[in-house]
Amino acid sequence: MAAQDTKGDGADGASPPITFSSFVIGLATQALMFLGAVPDPRGGEVQPNPAEAATIISVIEMLAVKTRGNLSEDEAKLVEEVLFELKMRYVNETRRSATREEGKE
């Protein structure tokens, strides 16, 4: 049996290797989906779920704390910018949801 190429360079159709940055971006994409900014890839529908987004934001915050001092400058900046953007979108979405609920009453 031949040894498998685990480099994952993408040349043979394999996924590229997961880096810290790509992992954070993947989490951010999921959070954006739950904030209604990105359609669900399975059905194309936008179905906001701020509670799920908040959970993912908390995971990214935990990663930021646990990796503090161990990230490159670019990685640290990425985490900071992603968290800022997600938190702002979360606030906007929850305010918009509250306004919609008030209009129904």
Give structural notes:
With 105 residues, the chain is mainly alpha-helical. The chain has one domain. Helices cover 62% and strands 0% of the residues. The protein contains three helices and no strands. α1 packs antiparallel against α2 and α1 packs parallel to α3. The longest helix has 32 residues. The N and C termini lie far apart (67 Å). The relative contact order is 0.13.
Quick overview:
This protein is an all-alpha fold and 105 residues long. It has helices at 20-34, 50-67, 73-104.
Radius of gyration: 18 Å
How widely separated are the two ends? 67 Å
Structure summary, number of beta strands: 0
Instruction: List unreliable stretches of 5+ residues.
Output: 1-6
The fraction of residues assigned to DSSP E strands is under 5%
Mean pLDDT: 86
Structural class by sheet pairing and helices: mainly alpha
Instruction: Count helical runs.
Output: 3
Fraction in helix: 55-70%
How many domains is the backbone divided into? Answer: 1
The largest sheet, given as strand count, sense and whether it forms a barrel, is: none
List the defining traits of the structure above.
single chain; 0% strand
Strand-helix topology:
Blueprint: H1 20-34, H2 50-67, H3 73-104
